[in-house]
Amino acid sequence: MFLKLGSETSRKAARFAHDLAQQTQARITLLFVLEPPRVLNLGFLDSELIAGPQRTPEEMDAVRRMLDEVAADLPKAQVEKVVEIGRPADTIVGMADKLGADHIVVGARGLNPGGKWLLGSVSDRVVQHAGRPVTVVH
């Protein structure tokens, strides 16, 4: 079982995945996806601008603490914690493929880097491209 973390709905999804994993004795991979900075071509003199947040050690520590907090209720032998940088939906599907996950659990909505709620675009894309069962938790 594979789970993407971040927003409040993804924490609800974590609780759901935890309950499901206990019933089925499944392993859980907790995934947090950080969006990469974007490189924008300015179009003159081959200039580029890097837009978006640069990842600080403090931010990475906060992500790891959050993963530890979510994993605290799970048996250590049953959970793996992963932090990846990439486009969220593509990274979720790609990691599920790479790990051979049999099920993906995602929250219905997440936060974009600007802090605005996305209307399920990541979960919708995961459902459309996963090639395996996906549970979307509201």
Automatic annotation (TrEMBL):
Cross-referenced InterPro entries: Rossmann-like_a/b/a_fold, Universal_stress_UspA, UspA
Protein name: Universal stress protein
Xref: SUPFAM superfamilies: Adenine nucleotide alpha hydrolases-like
Protein family membership: Belongs to the universal stress protein A family.
Residue stretches making up the UspA domain: 6-138
